[in-house]
Amino acid sequence: MKILFMGTPDFAVESLRRLVEGGYNVVGVITMPDKPIGRHQTELSASPVKKYAVAQGIPVLQPERLKAPEFLEELRALRADLQIVVAFRMLPEAVWAMPRLGTFNLHAALLPQYRGAAPINWAIINGDTETGITTFFLDHEIDTGSVIQRVPVPILDTDNVENVHDKLMILGADLVVETVDNIIAGTVKPIPQSELQTDEPLRPAPKIFKETCRIPWEKGVKACYDFVRGLSPYPAAWTELVQADKRTVLKVYATEKVFDTPTESVGTLVQDGRKSLRGALKDGYLVLKEVQLAGKKRMRVADFLCGFHADGTERVE
Q1: Among 116, 170, 205, 208, which one has the highest count of C-beta atoms within 10 angstroms of its own C-beta?
Q2: Residue range 125-146: average pLDDT?
Q3: Average pLDDT for residues 114-138, to the nearest whole number?
Q4: Across the chain, what does the average pLDDT equal?
Q5: Alpha helices, H only, the chain
Q6: What is the DSSP letter of 245?
Q7: pLDDT tens digits for 208-252?
């Protein structure tokens, strides 16, 4: 059976690697075009999936437009029986309907929950204690196709995006291989997502932008703690550090939560010598552990405080 693989980031490489090392016949890889990098944007950087595929001698296609006639012709020439998508982009029907066995996607959530581009981030931001991985056949609407298999994965209170990403990447590769084996064996029985939906409201997972990452100090300790770890280490939660009339962007990568009854107003920064820094909230404090000032490197708060000149009026907004 001929398999065509589509993906771009590191998350997808693990699934591709498992297929290649497992002896499956991967006849081609589709990934994003190389990105311009460098100060003058004159150098091109290949995606992690492309780098792996080239190293393995697998043909690589990098279409600008997925509906382009020349790309569709190249796709047909590969005569794939099955297409697998892991962290790529929305496909037109002309692509996903092409192979005789269809196209399935690996999604980093328990569908139908968290349809969208950033399921890992939003599950943590929302304080969920469980996420998972799902394989499903592609359909006309994004992330709505019939489910093949799902595997739940716990989210620990200390997990951030990096931890959960890495867990789902490994377990996702296992599920991709298992799904391929079941499709080959003819034992797959897809389930419409409507049959898996409970009374719990569906939560979306839209793309995250810079303004999305601003810490919502008004929401309280747990919400802010979950918010920070749901964006750490990338793209990173941020706030504005206010000193008199000066405002500086401060990224926050790690925090601890302390429930208390503060006497300070929400957003007030409280410093304990050169040891700790915490922001007052309506129900306690968010203790800052790792931060990064604009133009500086990421550092522990103890190191940050060595060069931080406080005058007692500091706030975060």
Answers
A1: 205
A2: 96
A3: 98
A4: 95
A5: 10-21, 48-55, 69-78, 93-96, 119-125, 161-185, 221-229, 301-306
A6: T
A7: 999 999 999 999 999 999 999 999 999 999 999 998 878 999 999
Per residue in 77-111, pLDDT tens? 999 999 999 999 999 999 999 999 999 999 999 99
Is the backbone of residue 96 left (phi > 0), alpha (psi -120 to 50) or beta? alpha
Using the Cα atoms of residue 217, residue 304, residue 208 and residue 224 in order, give the sign of their dihedral: negative
Q: Which residue has the tokens 């999936």?
A: 49
The answer to whether residues 277 and 256 touch, using CB atoms and an 8 Å cutoff, is no
**Neighbour-count burial of 211, counting CB atoms closer than 10 A to its CB (0-12 exposed, 13-18 middle, 19+ buried):** exposed
What's the token pair of residue 223? 């919400």
The region that residue 267 occupies, defined by phi over 0 for left and psi between -120 and 50 for alpha, beta otherwise, is left
Length of the chain: 317
Residue position matching structure tokens 């997502």: 193
The 3-state DSSP class for residue 123 equals helix
110 and 89 in contact (C-beta within 8 Å)? no
Q: Model confidence over 23-61: pLDDT tens digits?
A: 999 999 999 999 887 776 668 899 999 999 999 999 999
- Rounded to two decimals, the pTM is 0.94
- The two structure tokens encoding residue 122: 């939003």
Tokens, residue 228: 């920070």
**CA quadruple 202, 115, 231, 261: dihedral, nearest 10:** 0
